[in-house]
Amino acid sequence: MYKLIALDMDGTLLNSNKEISKENHEAIKKAREKGVKVVLATGRPVEGIKKYLEELDMVSDEEYVAAYNGAVIQNCKSGDIISKIPLNLDAYKELYELSKELNVNIHALTDEGVTTPKYNEYTEIEVTINKIPIKVEEVSDIDENETIIKVMFIDDPKKLDDITDKIPEHIKEKYTVVRTYSIFLEFLDKRVDKAFGVKTIAQNLNIKEEEIICVGDAGNDLGMVKYAGLGVAMGNAFDEVKEIADYVTLSNDNHGVAHVIEKFICLNKGD
To answer: Are 41 and 66 in contact (CB under 8 A)?
Structure first.
């Protein structure tokens, strides 16, 4: 019945050690052997998931990834862009002014890496996880031709909790705003989210909505979990993801992805 399964990375496919468990790896292999397309749908840049694509043997012309929360969709081997909907420098400038009002750290993801007006520990986490270069520069000094893919408020979890309700309505209406991790609040083009990414890939492969499983744990997964024929929340997912999911699987440290594949693709109905 299901022809495509889209998987979030952090908190879903990856365990707390940022590893793909043996159980998840073997289940994905089984799914692919049955002809099911496996798609990684992630907030990370492609550079940040290359090692996992290689580990899963998914670097081929037949495989696609939805990166930057759906802002960039590309072929895993050739790198050919299927879709790219970035923000722009004006958006970064606008959100930078808001970050100063809210006293929160900010950075932006570009084609080359990450740019931030001030070095901070949260941007360091971003560059370490994704192995991308960092450039510390004033927003006013950025080249007008720079591609700004997404902008992020990055700070202490409690501070982000406190400022989320202070985001002006006109900003929420203008951008896709998603909490992707305790220390990350992201802003993307309004047309973009993971649902858009998965839908674009599915249409490219002539796969219908009802033939899709989407699995995730955080706010940036809400759209694709709602969109899918079978929307799955991880056992460790945000409450709002669990509330809209069709099924709640095990946690990321208990091979929840493998459980979904065995139950709904390999048809082992046992819980």
So the answer is: yes
The stretches of the chain forming alpha helices (DSSP H) are: 22-33, 50-55, 89-102, 121-130, 157-164, 169-174, 194-204, 222-227, 239-244, 256-260
Question: How do residues 45-78 score in pLDDT, each as one tens digit?
Answer: 999 999 999 999 999 999 999 999 999 999 999 9
- What φ, ψ does residue 234 adopt, rounded to 5°? -70, 155
Distance, in Å, from the CA atom of 225 to the CA atom of 248, rounded to the nearest integer, reads: 11
Does the annotation count 90 as an active-site position? no
Bridge partners (DSSP) of residue 83 are: 73
| Chain mean position to CA 4 | 17
**Separation CA 197–CA 42 (nearest Å):** 10
Q: Which of 8, 10, 189, 217 is catalytic?
A: 8
The per-residue DSSP string of 114-151 comes to EEESS--HHHHHHHHHHT--EEE--GGGS-TT--EEEE
Q: Do residues 37 and 55 lie in contact, with contact meaning Cβ atoms separated by under 8 Å?
A: no
Decide: 215 and 199 in contact? Cβ < 8 Å: no
